[in-house]
Amino acid sequence: MKHIISIVFTLFLSGCASNLYVYESEKVQSPAIEKIKVFITNPEIGKPYDILVGSGIYEITNDRENSNKLTLKPSSRNAMCGNPLIASFVTFGLVPVSLPSFIEFTYTIETQSSRAEYRHNIELYTRVSIWEWLLKPTAKNETEVMSEALAKSQRMITKPGKSRNWVW
Q1: In this structure, are residues 45 and 71 in contact, taking their beta carbons and an 8 Å threshold?
Q2: How many other β-carbons are positioned within 10 Å of the β-carbon of residue 38?
Q3: What is the distance between the terminal CA atoms of the chain, rounded to a whole angstrom?
Q4: 9 within domain boundaries
Q5: Residue 8 domain-assigned (yes or no)
Q6: Maximum average pLDDT range among 36-45, 68-77, 131-140, 158-167
Q7: Is 118 a member of any domain?
Q8: Does residue 1 lie in a domain region?
Q9: What Rg value do the Cα atoms of the chain yield, rounded?
Q10: How many Å apart are CA 97 and CA 151, to the nearest integer?
Q11: Count of the separate structural domains present in the chain
């Protein structure tokens, strides 16, 4: 009995953990875009570069003479509502809660004759509970989850200056 009590007490002391997941819905479909070769002009941007490479939506080349030049822009993340965390707090993390998260992934592709800015709306959610730490060893890291979501998202042409989101 002491062992069970000590395990439960340890769970409460460890606190809640969170994992990031791809939001699966009917409107999230595999895009039907042609996989073209692109040269990334700013690989030093960091996380957006890693996400794009991991998604596999474009064939990345090191050939600077390639006519398709892709310039990544800083990704933006919408603020999420923290109300579900109240339920987690009241139940000491026993009840899992989900927090939606939307990321706007933007980039520009320049060819010899045109220039277009594209946007992908990446839909994710973060699940928070005391039980999530059990899934942590098998969970994908944030970049892998975002890459998977980017590969499943629709590519849209955007109008510059329309984003009002936070930049990370």
Answers
A1: no
A2: 23
A3: 47
A4: no
A5: no
A6: 36-45
A7: yes
A8: no
A9: 20
A10: 26
A11: 1
